[in-house]
Design brief:
With 203 residues, the protein is α+β, with helices and mostly antiparallel strands. 35% of the residues lie in helices and 23% in strands.
Length: 203
């Protein structure tokens, strides 16, 4: 190999950086999932699987770590639960809630979901409820590079439909969808998330 560090040495340096930069987030995610009471057996199995994944250490929550990444997302929903604000994801070419990888500058898991919700919706005051509404582990398709799957921790924020979103560079479009007329490609997934949000937040 010419130039730079040898592969093994480079990997050790990267692992050290991840351990330093993501230790606080790793500890917070473990705390959140340890304290969370899953609403059903399926969600409890995922909670247990997430905690097993987190046994990898801080690499389990860093994009540059292991190939299965823990992520944070935020469903923006109206007070009557009649509409949700979704992004037409540029890479996946599907409609989703807002979300993405944790960043070392995020102080907590909830802060990561808040940042993603605000950045991708263009709405500065999106503020997710601190209660986890759903866990979802899904394989990835499309141009996601190193990522193989996401272990998503999902929150929700209540926002009036009159608020106008702004489409970010990460999206092809951002728009309100009626919860009884969700986009075809991700209808089942988003419908399940809407149902989980209604139950968790009492909407």
């Amino acid at each position: 190999m010419t130039g730079g560090l040898p592969t093994e040495e480079h990997q050790r340096a990267q692992d050290s950086d991840i351990a330093r930069d993501f230790a606080h987030l790793h500890a917070d995610v473990v705390r959140v999932l340890d304290a969370w009471t899953a609403p059903d057996a399926g969600q409890e199995r995922l909670r247990t699987a997430y905690l097993a994944h987190l046994a990898e250490g801080p690499a389990a929550v860093a994009k540059a770590g292991v190939r299965d990444h823990l992520t944070a997302s935020c469903l923006v929903i109206t007070p009557d639960a009649g509409h949700v604000l979704l992004t037409h994801h540029r890479r996946a070419r599907e409609w989703f809630q807002f979300g993405g990888h944790l960043e070392a500058t995020d102080p907590t898991l909830l802060a990561a979901a808040t940042r993603e919700g605000r950045e991708e919706s263009g709405i500065a005051d999106v503020t997710p409820d601190p209660l986890v509404v759903q866990l979802d582990h899904h394989e990835l398709s499309g141009d996601f590079g190193w990522c193989r799957s996401h272990l998503d921790v999902r929150f929700a924020a209540v926002v009036d439909r009159e608020v106008v979103p702004v489409t970010s560079a990460e999206s092809l479009d951002v728009t309100w969808w009626p919860t009884d007329g969700l986009p075809e490609g991700t209808r089942d997934e988003i419908s399940a998330l809407v149902g989980a949000t209604r139950r968790a937040l009492g909407l």
